[in-house]
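We modelled the chain as a single entity of 848 amino acids. Its sequence is:
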Amino acid sequence: MSIIRLSYLSSCLIVLLAVLSSCYQGSDSKNNFDVNRLSLQDSISKINLSIKKIRNDSNSLQTTLEQSLSSNDKINQLVLYRSLGDLHLKNFHFTSAIKNHGEYLKLSEELADSLQIVKALNVLAIDYRKSYQMDNAIRYSFRARKTADNLQNSDTTVLREKALSLNGIGWIYSMLEYPDEALNSFRQSHQYAERANHTELLADGLMGIGVAYRDKKMYDSARVYFNKSADLFIEINSRTGLGLTFFCFGQLSAKQGSYQEALIFLNNAYNTLKETSDKLNWMEVCFTLGNTYKKLSQYAEAEKYLVEGLEIAKQLNLPFYLKNAYSDLSELYYLQNRPALAQQYHVVSHSFDNLINRNETQTILFNAFADYEKAESKKQLTGLKTVFDAKTNQQRILIVAFIVIIILLILIFLIHNRYTTMKKQKEKSLVEITKLKSDFYTNITHEFKTPISIIIGLAEKLKKTIGESKSAHNLIDLDIIGRQSENLLFLVNEILTVSKIQTRNSIHWVNGNIVSHLRYLHSCYVDFAETKKITYLFHSSTDEIIMDYSREQIRVIVNNLLTNAIKHCTAGNKILLMVREDKKQKKCIIEVADNGEGITAKDLPHIFKTFYQGESDLREQMGVGIGLAFTKQVVESLEGKIQVRSVPFKETVFTVEIPIINHHRASGNPLAEETVPLPRRFEYDPLELEEEKEDSSKPLILIAEDNRDMIFYLTTVLRDEFNIVVAHDGQQAMDFAEEKIPDLIISDLMMPLVDGNKLCSHTKNSVMTSHIPIIVLTAKASDEDRIQLTKAGADAYMTKPFIEEELKAKINQLLKSRKELREKYGQVVLDSQNASPELTNDSNFEFL
């Protein structure tokens, strides 16, 4: 905790120094400015809310304004002038809009609110631009941009006004046919609109970028941006915006000479804008439609739209558009061979020349841009001077900061030193814990090994002694005891392997012929494979591969791979253990291949993960063992690697690659491989016990078990009192049950093909076998397992290891209860026959 506190304290001090060094001046005045601006904005918001209902009523707004003028309420006047100007602009009363917005600007300057000044300049620029008074539009647009650049705040309102000023400048450049400058302004506007998250400005800016690309004759790029703009206008449900997008597409098609396509877009724009209040853009669409029809020599349609546009221009009193309308109609009348009208409209068109001076407008634009650039340069110089002065004033703070930093560095060094010490102590503790765990595994496994070794030794001794007396059954029993003891020793050795796998140095290395050791390991599973009727082969490309290896580790790897293969193969399948030498890469390659169940593509990437279980039914039947995850760890402890490929029911191949190293080779000849004699096995077949003559008076018991030794044990225990039939897997048991109709079934829980649960369920759901009692033998003893067995239909279950007499008692009890049930319902049948002879044909009574 003390370390955390010190670290937190040092971080806070560093942050404090950074703040002091960068913000030592001017914070109070800035805060006061922000408070005043927020207070004014709050007042404006409240007034806007109060006049919401009369916002579209110019008379009511004017009356309210006169009341504010009499009370000299500046803020009220500011809001009302802005609202009146916006309403007049919306109705295309440009003179009134300019007048009211001009008053709005004056009041904003009186209140010295920079944000309101920028807003006023922007709306005035829009007023002048839409009425095509370009000289004033240019002046106010650049004033708005310069004032907006001085705003330090970056909230969404400020960002919106910056985007709006740049957007206006972009449209001015576009209208005056400067596409490069227009594109630059629109791009800057788009960046601010994105930061402000203002969808309408984003859409308008994208449309402007498209127009700039169109004027640069980059038509594909223009089309892309028009599409983006249309998507945003649709998103905000703007009919005006969508109509303008159609207009842009129409102009683009006309520019490319696709006049028929242009007419489709232009007619869509015409119909869309006609339903809005946007007369200005509707008028422009009319002019473009007229000129497009004129290009196609459809003069009647051209005249219709040009005259309609002229009437709108007259209503709005817009000289620029009137001049263009008369000029377009004059040209049309010449084409129609109507010279009198053509001359008349030509004269009227030129009467507007004195009102529109393009050269003067361009001069104003260049001067405004030059003034803006000059102001920007001056601002940069002022900024550099301010930075220089600030650096000079910071020197004293830096001296103090240097001293504090030195102290902090000392503190950090002490903290780091303390942390390093604690980390080393923790690592030391972990090493000690790991050693204790390893010692525990080693001690407990040795405790297991001692009695198991004695059992195996005595079993072998008894085999030799009794072997001379030819007592076959005793020899078989002792053989099973010895084999199961070896299995137990194998499992204990696996636990010991877990404790050794952590370090390579703990592995017991030998240098010798690994091929002979693998041949021996292969031979250990011959009986197991023969019992399951599996073709079991060994192949080596060479008789000798001399290398360093660990007998114990190789045994664990091969035993687990072979056990896994045998468990997942059935009668008729093949298993092949192969070994070869890769001399080029100096590796020993061990492969275990089979054509059994295989691994699904879904399970394949995960089979080496600890505790992973696939979806296959057979995968659930794996016995105890370290599994593939631990097998992989053992392989890696030998600095090797393991891989698998599988095509289910065709081929599954596990490949182990171990480097060939000879660091443990003794001087002279390599270590001779120790020949491990195969233990002598007494051959027996549990099926021979079934061939004894059946006694019809004995009940018939079906044993479903895949373990050969367990079959032998159960058969020898029960054969004196019962007739026995054996099934080696669940599927065979289901077939035998329906064929032989046993009196009782004893089933293992975990079996190939069909497990005990499914055997119970199938038997109980079959009309032929539903009456047969079932006892399940299981190593699982949890409540969940017992509930699952009961639901499946098991009549009883016994946990391994079980007592022989208890098994017999359960069998007799179940057979007795079934006998009593049969006798009881047999009497019911007789009574029913006497009462109703027609019931004698009932299938249920016949069955009983």
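As a brief sanity check on the tokenised model: The domain at 153-237 is CATH 1.25.40.10 (Serine Threonine Protein Phosphatase 5, Tetratricopeptide repeat). The chain has a mean pLDDT of 80.
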